[in-house]
Structures are given as structure tokens and as C-alpha cells.
Design brief:
Strand content: 15-25%
Helix content: 40-55%
Radius of gyration: 17 Å
CATH topology of the largest domain: Rossmann fold
Number of strands: 8
């Protein structure tokens, strides 16, 4: 694990392998370990991952945290590594950060893979924001029992087994316990300012979306596909239905993106 400092915030990253650079960004509450769980080493690829603000051992500035700030962090990492342009892949929050970079630093993105979008040009839905807020406040209090007494849990418990686990596992994660603020802040932010921003993206883009997922509606992936010109949309099974095929299709999409046109 390596570190660099951007605007006074210490950020962790890894760069493994040699070849064309691939930036692969994790989701909200995740870390570099999440990427290690879905990425299989590809010869001739330099995999670049980072623990974004408030994740892993990276620091955070809660007063300024939003998608512009996280997009700036990624751009700073590329500059730190002396990389002019890279391929991008992102899961959930990582997909949102990738969109932000594509809009604000288009020269830095060769191609883009967006996996299970949780944001569009709008914040998360009011129900999902409520669930994250109640979870975050319960994390501050230190126990899942506090979460079980909230309206957020009433929303989550009706969802898939994967979603229920995603909202209860942070109570076993010291990083999420310490950095509970991210769950209150980020669900209400937007990665891009408008649908027009998406329509102006000229970067080849692949969108992967699944159903049966409270935080990552299939409709979000379909919407982003409709807005980004010449993008493609592929449906993948949700993790509860077929987790292995879910993982395998993500890897195949990464491999296909990296193939020469």
C-alpha cells in the first residue's frame, strides 16, 4: 500500500502490474479489497486502486466531501503517478466518481465501465438516503440495535438479502464505525450537475446494471445509458440470484473494455 497527499488529505492507493493503466474504484463503504474480489489479473494491465476519502486508512475532510472533491483526488493520483490517460471502472460510488472524472477531466479517461450505478444526475432516492442516514447515525451510537429501531431499517429489511447485509455489515467494520459521516453526506450528493453533462460525454462507455437491488436500481443504469451517446448497457444477475456469474460478467466487461478497438 502506498500513500500520497492531496489538499492536506492522506490517501492510500495501490498500483500493481505493468502495462496500460486501469483505474478501478470501489463503492460506498468498500475499499481496495472490494476490487480485489472482482478483478482477475490481466496481463499487460497496470491496476490502480485507491481507498477514497473516509475509506480504508485514507483521511477525509467532511466539510468539503463531495463527488467533485473525490474526482479531484483521482485526477491528483494520476498526476502523482505521471499517467496522462487511463481506462476507468467503478462500482456504485466508484461509478459515480468515474462519471465525475469523465465530465470534468475528459482528457484523463480513455474508456469507462460503470457498474451498478447508485447515482445519476440526481442524488439517491429519498428512501435510500433515509436508510443511509439512519445507519450512519446508528454507527455513531455504536450498535446495530439502534439501526433496527429506525425507519431506515424498515425500508432495508424488505429488500434483498444482499442489501440487508450491506446495511448491517458496517457495524462490524471499524472504518465505517469511525467514518460514519460519509453515509450521511454522499447519498445526498450528485456526481454530475445535469443530464446535459451526461449527453456531452464522448468517452466510450459500458454500463452494467442488475435488478432486485434497492441502492442500485436497474433504471439508473438504463437512464445513464440513454443519456451517454453511443454507450452500451448489459444486464447482469444480482448477487443474490447468481453471485458467481455477477462477478464473472464484471471481469469479462473489464477485459472487453481493455481490448484494442
Amino acid at each position: 500500500m502506498h500513500e500520497f497527499v492531496h489538499r492536506g488529505i492522506r490517501l492510500e492507493y495501490q498500483a500493481a502490474g505493468e502495462g496500460i493503466p486501469l483505474v478501478f474504484l470501489h463503492g460506498l463503504g468498500g475499499s481496495i479489497r472490494q476490487i480485489e474480489g472482482v478483478y482477475e489479473e490481466i496481463e499487460g494491465v497496470r491496476l490502480i486502486t485507491m481507498n477514497q476519502q473516509g475509506h480504508g486508512n485514507s483521511g477525509a475532510d467532511w466539510e468539503t466531501l463531495d463527488f467533485d472533491r473525490m474526482g479531484d483526488d483521482v485526477a491528483a493520483l494520476l498526476k502523482h503517478l505521471k499517467i496522462g490517460q487511463a481506462y476507468f471502472a467503478g462500482i456504485s460510488m466508484g461509478a459515480a466518481v468515474s462519471l465525475n472524472v469523465a465530465v470534468r477531466y475528459p482528457q484523463s479517461v480513455k474508456k469507462m465501465l460503470l457498474i451498478r450505478n447508485a447515482w445519476t444526475d440526481r442524488p439517491m432516492s429519498s428512501e435510500v438516503r433515509q436508510a443511509y442516514r439512519d445507519m450512519g447515525l446508528a454507527l455513531r451510537e455504536g450498535g446495530v440495535e439502534a439501526f433496527y429501531r429506525t425507519r431506515g431499517w424498515e425500508i432495508v429489511k424488505k429488500a434483498s438479502a444482499y442489501t440487508r447485509n450491506a446495511f448491517t455489515s458496517p457495524f462490524q467494520d471499524p472504518v465505517s464505525m469511525e467514518n460514519w459521516q460519509k453515509f450521511l453526506i454522499l447519498p445526498g450528493k450528485t456526481p454530475v450537475m445535469s443530464a446535459e453533462s451526461l449527453r456531452n460525454i464522448k468517452i466510450p462507455t459500458t454500463v452494467l446494471a442488475n435488478r432486485n437491488d434497492l441502492c442500485h436500481p436497474f433504471a439508473y443504469g438504463a437512464y445513464i445509458h440513454e443519456q451517454i451517446p453511443h454507450s452500451s448497457l448489459t444486464e447482469i444477475p444480482d448477487k443474490d440470484t447468481d453471485g458467481e456469474t455477477h462477478r464473472r460478467m464484471i471481469h469479462q466487461a473489464v477485459f472487453d473494455m481493455l481490448r484494442p478497438s
